[in-house]
Amino acid sequence: MENIEDFENIISLNWPHLFSTIDPNTSITITKLSTRNWLISSVDGLSYILKSASSSSTLNNGLNLDFELKYLIDLNKYLSNEYRVPIPILTINGEKHVNEKYWLYEYIDGKVYSDNDVTHLFDEKELISLAKLISKYHQFLITHSQTLSTNKKTTTREHLINELKQSTELITNRDGIDLVNQYYLGCYPLLKRLLEESLSRQEKSSIIRSYLIHRNLRPSKIIWSKTTNEVIGILDFENINYDTLWRDLAVCLSTFCTSSSPSIITDVDRMRIFIQEYMKQMSGGIAKVSSQTEQEVFHLIVDEIILCACEDFTFIYWQYIHQNEKFQGIKALEFYYKRALWHAEHAIKK
Fold first, then answer.
1. pTM
2. How far, in Å, CA of 258 to CA of 277, rounded?
3. Which secondary-structure segment (H or E) carries 4?
4. pLDDT per residue as tens digits for the range 24-78
5. Among 4, 154, 272, 275, which residue has the fewest nearby CB atoms (within 10 Å)?
6. Domain count, the chain
7. Most confident of 39-48, 283-292, 317-326
8. What is the pLDDT of residue 287?
9. Are residues 251 and 310 in the same domain?
10. Can you list the alpha helix ranges (DSSP code H) found in 144-267?
11. CA–CA gap between residue 326 and residue 319 (Å, rounded)
């Protein structure tokens, strides 16, 4: 649904009480922010976000919208005004959402950086502020582990190894091999070895608990104060799924601590600033993340960064085969191949 009038009807029918105090002559504007987010605003300063779920009944991970919204309500209560997350505003009928599809929350005013903004390198103060937020969020997951965690190990590594192998077999059985497939074949031996080494490390690890983590803690999901440049909140929890806390940290650090040149590299010194503060907050918080040392945590995160790069590589190739119009080109494959290689050869040995 892209028609503005349809959105106006949804809002007027389900949340009329929010705008009842506004002068009837005051115009309300609806602006598309992204695929599933619409800004509802008026000159009186009232601003809300109308959000649509990824499907009519379930999230990408199979959890329903009711679960996601309860997750946000519980998280907001735990954060106790220290940080903000989107929480649903009840409809006039007391419902959290409309037809398991649309829900509304108060706009969180602040600054959000683009994921592709390579001009802004997050400094020590910003990374410490970010670490405090993420540690608080992870303490919420640990203290609510009875309902938000599982002891089942993730099988991402095995899945990726099989996917690489199957794709390679399909390529070699074809009559002609184009440049993309030729590049894929050339990358296969190293990526397979990196994943097998990562799988071996996972099997030796005593850390098997997975939590319903955010999985996408990158710059576009973090809100900063416009005045103090401190972190004030997190956005977009629709992709929560079971994985280790290290996966959350890997996505976070590989996007907040990238080097200005080349961008495939994660700045190890800035990573350590974040990890040191994160561990400090976790050890002093209500919940203990683990008995791991900072160095062990560093290696766990780097291992996940390598895994993320392998995932992105295989996804881009999947696009080439199944959604060719969205294929990002050989340069994108090269980027993630080099990212996995650099972290395996340099970062994980530090």
1. 0.90
2. 18
3. helix 4-14
4. 666 778 888 888 899 998 766 779 999 998 754 444 555 689 999 999 999 999 9
5. 4
6. 2
7. 317-326
8. 52
9. yes
10. 145-148, 156-172, 179-204, 245-256
11. 6
Q: CATH no. for residue 342?
A: 3.90.1200.10
Q: How many CA atoms lie within 13 A of 186 on its CB side?
A: 12
Task: State the Cα–Cα distance between residues 183 and 332, nearest whole angstrom.
Answer: 12
Structure tokens at 104: 């509304």
- Structure tokens, 176: 């002609």
Q: Mean pLDDT, to the nearest integer, of 261-265?
A: 73
Q: Read off the tokens for 221.
A: 């999901």
- Find the domain containing 340 and state its range: 124-349
**CA–CA distance, 237 with 293 (Å, rounded to integer):** 29
Tokens matching residue 281: 């907050």
Asked if 158 and 301 count as a contact pair (C-beta separation under 8 A), the reply is no
Alpha carbons within 13 angstroms on the beta-carbon side of residue 322 total 7
DSSP string for residues in 123-158: -HHHHHHHHHHHHHHHHHHHHTHHHHEE-PPP-HHH
